Amino acid sequence: MTDQPKISIRDLYKIFGPHPHSMVPKVHGGMGKAELLEKHGHVLGLRDINVDMRRGDITVIMGLSGSGKSTLIRHLNGLISPTAGEILLDGIDVAGLTGKALRELRRFRMSMVFQSFALMPHMRVVQNVEMAQDVRGDNKTEARENAIRWLARLGLKGYENHYPHQLSGGMQQRVGIARALASNSDVMLMDEAFSALDPLMRTDMQSLLLDLQHELSKTIIFITHDLDEALRLADHLVILKDGVVVQQGEPQSIILNPADAYIEKFVDDINRARVLRAGSVMVSDVANGTGTFGEVDIDDNLDTVMARSEGDLASSLTVVKDGLPVGVIRMQDVFRALVPRHSVRPVSVENATAGTVKQEQAT
Known about the structure:
Distance between the termini: 38 Å
Number of helices: 17
Structural class: alpha/beta
Oligomer: single chain
Strand order of the largest sheet: 6-7-8-3-9-10
Radius of gyration: 23 Å
Helix content: 40-55%
Low-confidence stretches: 343-363
């Protein structure tokens, strides 16, 4: 993985209305969404978006309804054109592509998985999967073999000749993912891809995506309104509100260091013990690892860390990665991390413990 981002979004604005370009100076001057709509009848969809999406990472864009997340993802493959700004894919401005170049982008460089599955009901499963390859003129025999291979990889062997309506919702979404993977695109766009599934199936699909990503290292942009899903999937998390990036970064860092009251409220109800990991709380001080109580892996959650401490609040544990020590985690720091930042006050370890018990009972 290189340091150069796969996708760079720079100074991106999207304004909906009859004269959007004339509204840009007003927005630059500080006019907000409500004022722009009231005074000029234009809707501010996105404002000054600057995001780098690294190759091989899952970038999750999340926010509530109306935050602009779906508008943003549709800029990446040219379904929506920006009012101002640029979207660079390997240094090429996607916003400036038209005609054949834009079609080539959608056929070869990007694939999309939709919330509604978007399968062709009159086509068999295998035909749906090979559709992208057919559209761009790939060899039919090779396209069919590729489609069958991906269907088998996603647990759908034997369903190749079924129609979509004969499959469950989870199976239909697997077909959609198989179609995206069969296109062999650089980038996968996933817009609320699991939102229509029941909770258990949704969890299964998240696990499947993570397994595939570990194997394939695709560049994935995933849209969701669900914080638990975002925290599970994201390498890089971008949180939108009213078309503006409120905070972005590594998910663990956002939980521990929310930028404002809006983010604090967003992360307030999560089970921090199950989400936060040892690597986010440890001190990178291997030299002080002597005399620690035991070991935990850098990716173990704080539930595991507390269990490993066996209730000793004064203990410390060595944090290891790939079997080698990389830091030390102190139980005092663990309990401090479990208290949301806005409610942090100077307290003893005993009081922090009591607060943690109450939080666990509430969740």
